[in-house]
Structure formats: structure tokens, C-alpha cells
Write a structure and sequence with these properties.
- By secondary structure, this protein is of the alpha+beta class.
- Helices cover about 25% and strands about 35% of the residues.
- Strands 1, 2, 3, 4, 5 and 8 form a 6-stranded antiparallel β-sheet that branches.
- A hairpin with a 5-residue loop joins strand 6 and strand 7.
């Protein structure tokens, strides 16, 4: 191989390396911008949902108007319902007002999260603390799964099933 041919091959190799480096840099820059803007494929599934938005810290906050409606059962009025999810844990917070004329003692409840078609997503237990007439207590109930995309919630008194004792 002549000296001029080696030089030409060396120049072509250098040009090829420079072009590849530029392409890699451009591609990595595009991916970084997508991640920062929340548009990457991996991040897209984490932020999309009909009834929630993702906050800056990664918390999913439920935005369903149906969930935000005041719920009533027995002498209780449940309002200011908030449903959030972070790190796989869904937390339901609400204010519970005793609309009755007598003190309500601790009440075991069942919380059922529903999808848009009214189908049950999950049912779990909670407790409403004792509350005086016209008084309000906070309700806090968590479940270790992601249910941020819930459409509605149904709250009712828990049915207590007696334990069967085997002999």
C-alpha cells in the first residue's frame, strides 16, 4: 500500500469516528431532553392516566371529579377525599363528619375503589375514629398497591364475620 493510500484510509477512519461520535452525542442529548420533559417511553407509562397527574416528586395525585364528591353512609358525611400514590403505596385521606345527634364510636369500614365502569378494583378495611355529634375526624387508609387511577370510592360499614374455631 502506498503512503497516499494509507493516509486516505486514515482520514476516512477519522471521519467515520467523528461522524459516529456526533450521532451518539445527538441521540444521547435527545434522550436526556425526553427524560427531563417526561416524554421517554419508560417515563410515559408512569405519568399517563385518565384520573391522575404526576407531581414533580413522582407522587400520583388522583384528579377524578367523582372521587371528589361528598360521600354519605349512615350518619357519616365523607368529604375532602384525596387519593395519592407514591412508591407503590396508595393513600386515601378524607374528613369524616358525624351528622348524627349521638357520639359515634370507632367504626370499622370497607373501602372499595372503583373504575369508570363501576367495577371493583380493590376492597380493603379502614376505621373511622370515635367522633362527637357534628364533629369531624380525619380518615387515613393505605394499601400497598398502585390505585392512583381510581374513578370513585364506595365506603360502607364492614361486615364482621365471626371466626370459625376448629375443634
Amino acid at each position: 500500500m502506498k503512503k497516499s493510500e494509507r493516509r486516505m484510509i486514515l482520514i476516512l477512519v477519522i471521519i467515520t469516528i467523528v461522524v459516529i461520535a456526533i450521532l451518539v452525542k445527538v441521540r444521547n442529548g435527545k434522550n436526556s431532553a425526553e427524560v427531563e420533559n417526561g416524554n421517554s417511553d419508560n417515563n410515559q407509562t408512569a405519568v399517563s392516566g385518565e384520573f391522575f397527574e404526576t407531581l414533580e416528586d413522582g407522587t400520583k395525585k388522583n384528579t377524578s371529579n367523582k372521587l371528589a364528591e361528598v360521600k354519605k353512609f349512615e350518619n357519616y358525611e365523607i368529604s375532602n377525599i384525596q387519593l395519592t400514590e407514591k412508591n407503590g403505596d396508595t393513600l386515601l385521606l378524607a374528613d369524616v363528619k358525624n351528622m348524627g345527634e349521638a357520639r359515634a364510636e370507632d367504626t370499622l369500614i370497607q373501602i372499595t375503589l372503583l373504575d369508570k365502569e363501576g367495577k371493583e378494583l380493590v376492597t380493603y378495611d379502614g376505621i373511622i375514629s370515635a367522633v362527637d355529634p357534628q364533629g369531624t375526624v380525619p380518615l387515613s387508609a393505605a394499601i400497598a398497591m398502585d390505585f392512583a387511577n381510581t374513578y370513585d370510592v364506595l365506603i360502607k360499614r364492614a361486615e364482621i364475620v365471626p371466626e370459625v374455631v376448629e375443634q
